[in-house]
Amino acid sequence: MSDNSSSKRSGFDRRAFMAGAGIALVPLTARAAVQDPTPAAAQDPALPVEVTLRVNGQDKRLRIDARTTVLDALREHIGLTGSKKGCDHGQCGACTVLVGDRRVVSCLTLALAAEGQEITTIEGLATGDHLHPMQQAFIDNDAFQCGYCTPGQIMSAVACVKEGHAGSDEDIREYMSGNICRCAAYPNIVAAVKQAASDIMKG
Amino acid sequence: MTVAAPEPKVNMGNPVPRYDAVVKVTGRATYASDMPLANPAYAYLVTSAIAKGRVESFDLAGANRVRGVIDIVTHENGPKLKELKLYSNGGYAGTTIQPLRSADIAHDGQIIAVVIAESYEAAREAANRVKVSYTAVVPSATFDSPGTTTAAAKGQNSQFKEDPQVGNFAKAFEDAEVKLTASYDTPTQHHNPMELFSTSCAWIGDNLVIYEPSQYVYGLKNGVAEQLGIDADKVRVVNPYVGGGFGSRGSMTPRTAIIAAIARRLNRPIKLVPTRDQGFTIATYRAETRHEIKLGASRDGKLVALRHEGAEVSSRPDPYCVGGTKTTTRLYACPNVDSLVSIVRADRNTPGFMRSPPEVPYLFALESAMDELAVKLNMDPVELRRINDTTNEPIGGKPYTSRSLMACFDEAAKAFGWSQRSPEPKSMADGDWLIGYGCAATCYPTQMGPSAARVRLQRDGRTRVEIAGHEIGTGAYTIIAQTASERLGVPLEKVAVFVGDSELPPAPVAGGSNSTASTCSAVMMVCDQIRQRLFKAMMPNQSLTDRAKETVGIGQTPATRAAKSDRSLDLEKAFDALGAGVVEEYGEWKPEDAPPDSFQAMHSGHVRLVGGHSLKDKIAYAFGAEFVEVRVNRFTHEIRAPRLVGAFAAGRIMNPRTARSQLMGGLIWGMSSALLEATEIDQRTARYVNDNFADYLVPVNADVPGVEVILLSEQDDHINPAGAKGLGELANVGTNAAVCNAIYHATGQRIRKLPVRLENIEV
């Protein structure tokens, strides 16, 4: 789930995925779960570990809890709050970033697992004041309202074009379906991806 | 012009791009949990695993051993907060169920402990290690559960004063040539805005700053101050961007004061980002409803009798209801009308506003019944609406300020290709897919509330507009900037707008679709105050008569007239004449018919909306018509909605781009409500089952192939200075019924219970 691009087309549907994974109807976070006893101090995951993340071309050295996700590392430790937490379960796509060229839900990716890889966030997309064609296309086509899912939509859309999945409206709709927009700007998002895809092809 | 930016028609503003577009596409828009805090501690909620009963004891040993835990707050050591009062009862809260005050549990997922730790990870782990012993009592989950109580809404809900009635329904129904009786059900739904129900609290000395997504910063500020027992001027709520509201953030929830009090006790900023599933129980939702509609008509289709009975679920302590009969009894001409709304109390969290609160469930019932009646009459459903269209509402006989319902039907029908429909059910198909066309009316009351604004204009045209409105995705920044730019005659790019901060002049709750009308009317008025000062400076040679007029308040001076006209100003000349570098004005606007305490209430965070049917001698609504094509697979029963077409008239359209987007989103919301969304409740435990984004279905891009929005020109000079009717809640009202009416046309099967799933189809 953390790697959208490698999913097969049928497995790309978020609902098909969840049903297939057999997670439906089981609450994923325990409310007051009963668990036993404290782990040995030597294995205590709260003891900070050192990790260096390469984000938007810069190395960021962090001392963090080993369980910190890329999303929380970005937001709480590096100060890049563009990537958003909408579910923390890989179900909504608001936290989507690029790891290399792949789109990844950063809430399901541990920071430790992303060490040594190029992470691109929404903050790294524009060059100075010059917007990426996808950002401009989102503006031109009014592809957002509240804007909270937008960073994830745009990162996903950039990858969608690179993957070659922006050839038709139907393809765009299918391959952008891992990103929920509750304001439902979907038709405008399709128009934006189409415009940007053509801009990117033209170079 | 692109599809996203339609060419403006008469009485429409320019479709300029959003004011906040660049910050939103670059990740620089700062939502509540993005706000930097100095050395914050992290909060994680522990919520109840039972719906009714009490906490017998906590075993916190395991949780306290987690490295980094700072504090665990329960009812045993909880902050002492003042009692919550419901917003409709002079308070600010959306619920009076107050966690951490006692061991009692009133609903599933109630907050029972808050863990504070040095990191989010430690807080989460410790929360999962909190052991709770409960004494559980069997809860009442919903309609028909043993132990629920039912009573009329009138008399217990201060905002539902009357069950509308006129004429003699019983006799007229008995005598009617054609009769219909049908029952309809709508499900529990949760708003699920993308931004979680986050709260950060930081104290600076005696002053509290709250970062929280809110649709009403003045309500939240005053409510938290009241609960903490401190001066409201010491509380500031900041949220320049809100990641969706849909009603879920209109009234205060209990979490805010709890986090504020813990932050004060620990003398440290606290950041709470609750989980998605916790959002189902720590905030509000749309309760399930039941309806019975009785329609009597003459053979030629004229309604002679209409009765709408509705029942809604609420919590044990709070009599919340939406009471949509105020709209359904007034939509069509009918001389004999009766209605009744009841509230059913169960062991649930208190419901609240959700996008188009009264109209969504109640018009689903009425507009489905109208379609059923059209079938009985063998009449085109559009024509049935035309026959019963009216210029005056039937209950009090008051005239609609404007009503473009049939114009909307005609425009949308043309764009949709309604004339291509063969009326017989199951008569249209494409291979394995049965095709159905359906339509429904949509409407929403035009509401306004008192609002203040401050505007500052500089000689070079730079303008600063301050108003504590809310940008929840509606385009508030954009249309406020457009309003100031147009009124002052300064370029749009010179206007800076500040909203989402309780230090700014008060605006109403961003709810009930009142924001555009209220905030833009206030901004227009204050811009005119500035123009007046400048024109006065430029027109010093007024006659004595003019001055006398001004002094005794009869008529208007030429400068005043000029200020209120569209006459343009030479800013540099005007500033030279005035001899000032900056002109700043503050003003308070209130709508006609606003109650006398309006301004006082506005400053203390109480909403005084007027409009809809509550105006003295008129009634104001926005209207629309919606057409849906559904395709139902005759073998798998899969249901798709490939085409949604809506035409809408809502007075002045401030910006066709943002208006279209909101209406488009509304149509998709409506389709989603008809086919996807329902919160499932475990009848035995009164707990929500599908409390996450994988199991609570909302549309994804692949679910939404074709949406067409048509904006009609409409001018209404009887509502507010901005001439605007709200449209944020207009589009998702009629869609439920339109989808079901289309499914009937496709399959011959009438479905009266939402949402419609493939297992409900029996072709």
Automatic annotation (TrEMBL), chain A:
PROSITE patterns: 2FE2S_FER_1, 2FE2S_FER_2, TAT
Keyword Transcription regulation: no
CDD domains listed in its UniProt record: fer2 (cd00207)
GO molecular function annotations of the record: 2 iron, 2 sulfur cluster binding; metal ion binding; oxidoreductase activity, acting on the aldehyde or oxo group of donors
Keyword Metal-binding found: yes
Domain 2Fe-2S ferredoxin-type: 49-125
Domain of life: Bacteria
Keywords: 2Fe-2S, Iron, Iron-sulfur, Metal-binding, Oxidoreductase
InterPro entries in the record: 2Fe-2S-bd, 2Fe-2S-bd_dom_sf, 2Fe-2S_ferredoxin-like_sf, 2Fe-2S_ferredoxin-type, 2Fe2S_fd_BS, Aldehyde_Oxdr_Iron-Sulfur, Beta-grasp_dom_sf, TAT_signal
Record SUPFAM superfamilies: 2Fe-2S ferredoxin-like, CO dehydrogenase ISP C-domain like
The protein's name in its UniProt record: (2Fe-2S)-binding protein
UniProtKB/TrEMBL annotation, chain B:
Aldehyde oxidase/xanthine dehydrogenase a/b hammerhead domain: residues covered: 26-138
Oxidoreductase recorded as keyword: yes
Claim: Zinc-finger is one of the keywords in the record: no
GO molecular-function terms, A-Z: iron ion binding; oxidoreductase activity
SMART domains: Ald_Xan_dh_C
Matches recorded under Pfam families: Ald_Xan_dh_C, MoCoBD_1, MoCoBD_2
Matches recorded under InterPro entries: Ald_Oxase/Xan_DH_a/b, Ald_Oxase/Xan_DH_a/b_sf, Ald_Oxase/xanthine_DH-like, AldOxase/xan_DH_MoCoBD1, AldOxase/xan_DH_MoCoBD2, AldOxase/xan_DH_Mopterin-bd_sf
Keywords assigned: Molybdenum, Oxidoreductase
Name listed for the protein in its UniProt record: Xanthine dehydrogenase family protein molybdopterin-binding subunit
Organism placement in taxonomy: Bacteria, Pseudomonadati, Pseudomonadota, Alphaproteobacteria, Hyphomicrobiales
